[in-house]
């Protein structure tokens, strides 16, 4: 039986050749060509059990570029013996750098200054007064690949005082100079002027940042989110920004996404917004594409991929 790879995104020729040597490749996301696929590569929609069944019993793998797999029903995939693979190493550096860029942009009032020079004459210099980061405090929720790089850049480069929270962090882990840890997530919000989020969106992290935790933050604090929009209760965040409790926020992700046209965040001068582009660098995209192809080639050749988000399902339908 001919193997088929159905993709929602095109590959550069050098990578596409690796797949076409092993399978028929559909790279235009045409749903009419979906059925019978061995592998699908998922980006744009939510992939639930109904979608998986629509593909058919030949489906062995869902290949996701990047880290997050929150647009895939992992339980449904696991029940069906379908491997869900991602590329967690690929976008880490790009995303970490973007989070620090958001932090610095909002602290230094970069966008307000830009708006002023482009004709917003109603902006006074007091609205362009920034916050110095040297010696300031940063709390990091999530100390995985991205959180670690943010900690290094901010503690060793900017020389901020960094505290991290991660319930899965081993007790004996070595932390860089200037980085401490806490076992209490509320401490992150209560004791740091800046808080940045680097946690996956899971049932237990949905609205992790709610009104109570935002109010734990000291007046004049900042929130940075380059993880997933659902980690933050946006209604509570908007309120905290509107009433002046928070000095500002830097956001690359939203809930829903993209943000609706009437979202108050879009009109706030103390908020820096980007459209979920933290990983969208030349190096980041190339690494995600190459890593996704590596995973797909492994499956097509009957080998175990390097990264499996639901590892307990191995070998799944590959062993059938």
Tell me the radius of gyration.
21 Å
What is the element string, with H for helices and E for strands? EHEEHEHEHHEHEEHEHEHEEH
Distance separating the two termini: 14 Å
Task: Decide which structural class fits the backbone.
Answer: alpha/beta
Largest sheet: 7 strands, parallel
**How many beta-strand elements?**
12
Low-confidence residue ranges: none
Residues in helices, as a percent range = 25-40%
Q: Strand content of the residues, in percent? A: 5-15%
Number of discrete helical segments:
10
Name the strands of the widest sheet in spatial order: 8-7-6-9-10-11-12
Give structural notes.
By secondary structure, the chain is an alpha/beta fold. It is 31% helix and 15% strand. It has 10 helices and 12 strands. The protein has helices spanning 13-20, 49-55, 74-79, 92-107, 110-117, 145-157, 185-191, 211-216, 234-242, 282-300; strands at residues 4-7, 24-26, 39-41, 61-63, 83-85, 137-141, 161-165, 179-181, 194-197, 221-225, 246-251, 271-273.
